[in-house]
Specification:
With 639 residues, the protein is mainly α. Helix content is 48%, strand content 10%. The protein has a three-stranded antiparallel beta sheet, with no helix packed on it. Strand 1 (35-36), helix 2 (42-46) and strand 2 form a beta-alpha-beta unit. Helix 4 (106-129) packs antiparallel against helix 18 and helix 15 crosses helix 16.
């Protein structure tokens, strides 16, 4: 309350605009008529909520779309709108560019966070401003506070596409991992020959695609597929709903939310990679390295062991009688160091799961013999689901709950950003005790922040654009989903903004879809994933009673400022995965709720219920058991 009032008294009074209604301001359109604005009820905005208390008898003022809101008030309202957008925008690059997907460096992930914020601010200006396309009768933009952000719809498609690409050979020749010029990273560090083990395929002499190439290929694919949404924007709104009915889009949105919620829970428990392998234990044996080329031919497989003496039980291959699942990689000649690198034997064993191999007694006594430890939570490395990780993530959930129950409209509107910052502060103060005199470990370190530059901007880092053909159809489906979602979001925003009866609703929807498609195309060129209208706008407008375009312009300005200051992105990238998981789980489950809301009216019809049940049976089942159809549905034929 004090900070809100301080901002008001220091700025609002100086910038207050009085007088008769005006026809146009510097951001206006010719057909817009601007009105004078009532004063803001700062007491209502900043007063905490008291549960079970009587509701106020008088509603606070509503700031219409074209009201001449004082710029001091607009700055405050725009700031809280930007905070509401912050969590959704920064989550996508952290997940997609992280060590378990594109495997980018810390500097690249921090750049993507900044680029996402900057592009969101710049592209949202087009959506809010609303430009008439000559005398065609078409528009670009909604003319409302419709802030764009990186769409969650494309996250599962991006992760799967990048994963497939990074398993395929590129056109870059190699003799060893050190020859791959765009190496894979390992937990934010990228160094050829060290962090990109087995990126060079010795049999083919080619490097597998790097994370930068795979990410750039998906960006190019999105740019191409965005043309579909641009084309759909010129279709009438009613026709769009007939072609893509709610029973279809609702199921798609719900299943996307289910898949992403699973990802959020994995991060909450410590990280996605350690979550996927929490039931396994791995023993790795590395043979001795020798100077010179003992293989005779670095590309020969299997290696002639008469020259290189191996101590591996698997050499030259893993026999079936070994317990667990084992793999063997023969010795390799590294031309750069003129050394024959030792052979590598990796054996996986499962821990106490019914119907699988049991871990031996030594492994049970020594939990360090495993790969289920979670990294990227500062200095603290613990198994997946450790109480420390779960507890820190739960602190974010508690702040969300408390702010929803007791928070003022300002706090409730900014609750995601406030909860994320509160969880970050708690984790920064927390310590993990070590035995003896060893210093306690930190969940947050300053390494990424200290290495980050002061400011940054778009194209500081670039990614080679191309088109990944297998991802075209899934990406087009994603754009169809976001198109229908945006129709609902823009309609809801018009209702919340009280302009749904002004005769411009159809043109606002058309302009919004055109801007979404154009923004998604431009965002690929700006090195970020597709930007579409955020559904959070509806809640922000309803809660704050502010639909004013001036507040929207200020929101865009704050997003650009957040992105340009590179230290902010570095701070966000330093947040432990368990804290990030607590926040993203809440965001992602809201997508599930959105899907249920779309399906709600349709479920009263038996035919629709049957369609939804049939789709969810497979969709949710595969989301819960991803490897359901990977093994025995296809068997080799008998010859």
């Amino acid at each position: 309350p004090i900070s809100c009032c301080a901002i008001y008294h220091s700025t609002a009074g100086l910038l207050l605009t009085m007088g008769e209604p005006m026809k146009k301001d510097i951001f206006g359109q010719d057909e817009e008529i601007f009105e004078s604005s009532p004063p803001l009820d700062w007491g209502w905005l900043c007063t905490p909520r008291i549960p079970c208390a009587a509701a106020p008898t008088k509603n606070p003022p509503f700031y219409k779309v074209n009201a001449l809101m004082p710029w001091g008030v607009a700055i405050v309202m725009g700031f809280q709108h930007a905070l509401a957008m912050l969590g959704g925008i920064v989550s996508v690059p952290i997940i997609v560019g992280g060590p378990f997907d594109a495997q980018l460096s810390n500097a690249e992930v921090q750049y993507l966070i900044s680029a996402g914020l900057i592009s969101s601010g710049l592209l949202s200006l087009i959506q809010i401003y609303r430009i008439k396309l000559g005398n065609t009768g078409y528009y670009m933009g909604t003319g409302m506070v419709s802030v764009l952000g990186t769409s969650f719809t494309f996250v599962p498609i991006a992760r799967t596409s990048i994963d497939f690409m990074m398993k395929e050979d590129s056109n870059n020749p190699c003799e060893s991992d050190a020859d791959c010029k765009m190496p894979w990273g390992a937990f934010g560090v990228v160094e050829a020959g060290k962090t990109n083990a087995r990126q060079c395929t010795i049999e083919t002499g080619m490097c597998k695609f790097s994370g930068q190439e795979a990410y750039g290929a998906f960006l190019g694919t999105c740019c191409f597929c965005a043309l579909l949404e641009i084309a759909l924007s010129f279709m009438p709104r009613a026709q769009l709903r007939r072609i893509f009915p709610p029973v279809v889009t609702g199921v798609c949105v719900l299943l996307i939310g289910v898949a992403l919620t699973g990802t959020g829970i994995k991060y909450w428990g410590g990280g996605a990679f350690c979550a996927d392998h929490a039931s396994k234990r791995k023993l790795t044996t590395v043979g001795k390295s020798y100077p010179g080329d003992l293989t005779g031919d670095s590309k020969a497989t299997p290696v002639k062991l008469s020259t290189y003496v191996s101590t591996s039980p698997c050499a030259p291959g893993c026999p079936k009688e070994l317990s667990g699942v084992c793999s063997y990689t023969g010795p390799k000649y590294d031309k750069a160091s003129d050394t024959t690198k030792g052979d590598v034997t990796i054996c996986e064993r499962f821990s106490d799961l019914p119907g699988t191999f049991m871990a031996n007694a030594e492994e049970k006594r020594n939990p360090d013999i495993s790969w289920q430890k979670c990294t990227d939570n500062g200095q603290v490395v613990l198994p997946f689901g450790a109480a420390e990780y779960v507890g820190l993530g739960f602190s974010v959930f508690m702040v969300l709950l408390i702010s929803e129950v007791f928070g003022s409209p300002f706090v409730r509107n900014s609750q995601v950003a406030i909860a994320l910052l509160a969880g970050f502060a708690i984790s920064a103060l927390a310590r993990y005790p070590m035995p003896g005199n060893a210093p306690d470990l930190k969940y947050v370190t300053n390494d990424k922040i200290n290495k980050a530059p002061g400011i940054t901007f778009l194209w500081v880092k670039t990614f080679p654009l191309s088109v990944y053909v297998p991802a075209i159809i899934p990406t087009m489906i994603g754009f169809i989903i976001t198109t229908v979602e945006s129709v609902g979001d823009i309609t809801a925003s018009a209702e919340a903004s009280r302009v749904d009866q002004d005769g411009l609703l159809d043109s606002r929807v058309q302009g919004g879809l055109l801007t979404d498609g154009l923004a998604s195309l431009l965002s690929g060129l700006l090195t970020v994933l597709p930007n579409t209208t955020f559904s959070q706008n509806n809640g922000v407008i309803s809660l704050t009673r502010c639909a004013n375009k001036r507040a929207g312009y200020c929101c865009c300005g704050f997003l650009v400022i957040f992105g340009v200051i590179a230290k902010i992105a570095a701070i966000i990238n330093s947040i432990p995965y368990c804290i990030l998981g607590g926040m993203t789980t809440f965001l992602f489950v809201n997508i599930v709720v959105s899907g249920i809301k779309i399906l709600g009216p349709e479920l009263s019809v038996r035919r629709s219920r049957f369609i939804v049940a049939s789709a969810l049976a497979i969709g949710i089942g595969v989301a819960l058991v991803p490897h359901w159809g990977n093994n025995d549905l296809i068997r080799p034929g008998k010859g």
